[in-house]
Amino acid sequence: MEHLVCLACHVNFTNQRFPGIGRKPLDWETRLKIAVGAARGVAHIHRQDGEKLVHGNIKSSNIFFDGQNYSIVGDAGLAKLMRPIRRSAVRDPHYYPAEVTDTRKVSQASDVYSFGVVLLELVTGRTSSQTTTDGGDVISLVNWIQSVVREEWTLEVIDVELLRYPSETEAMVQVLQIGLDCAVTVPELRPRMAQVVRMLEEISGIEPADESRLEDRWEQPTVESILEDLLEDLLPTLTP
């Protein structure tokens, strides 16, 4: 199995707002490629089981990518085992819309909301719940972006590491808007994942995928294989 890297380890700590990780920031092309790959993966999941399958736990720590920056969405199918999901399972509440935190019932629409938060993380370099107001209160990334005037997004919202690509600013703003569209309060107003895939493919210039050729790539990694990869990555730092 190819060595996989957790997206959260890169994106959530890429700029000066979250120092200390020491990893090289992802460039814009790489972030777009990961976004498209992850969107295709979630859309693929939504097409299964008569288009009734729900992931239920989409967040940056469940998105992995290999040396070629192809994304794999892990932990799929968990929601099918827990209906409704346990309150203790909602460890990252800012990835979930209100209808999930209130009822603990996930849906494809709530998956779209969660994916929208991941898109916002990709563009801002901020985590879903570590953005604070001037008063020091923690608010969701979605609410924080909505509080910033759109005309100020470039300087206030976009990851400072991405400002090195001024020609791509329009695309960054477009991805931000898609993320916000996915994270609207009313579930029925959110786009379907197939629509999100098409919009991201258009922005990135990546050719539409042939579903039949990508079946193997979207096979979900097992927990054991992911742990093996993480241990392999950590062992050199633990041994003298």
Automatic annotation (TrEMBL):
InterPro entries: At_inactive_RLKs, Kinase-like_dom_sf, Prot_kinase_dom, Ser-Thr/Tyr_kinase_cat_dom. Residues 1-203 form the Protein kinase domain. GO terms for molecular function: ATP binding; protein kinase activity. Pfam families: PK_Tyr_Ser-Thr (PF07714). Keywords: Kinase, Receptor, Transferase. PANTHER family: OS05G0588300 PROTEIN, PROTEIN KINASE DOMAIN-CONTAINING PROTEIN. This is Probable inactive receptor kinase At4g23740. It comes from Sesamum indicum. The gene is LOC110011900.
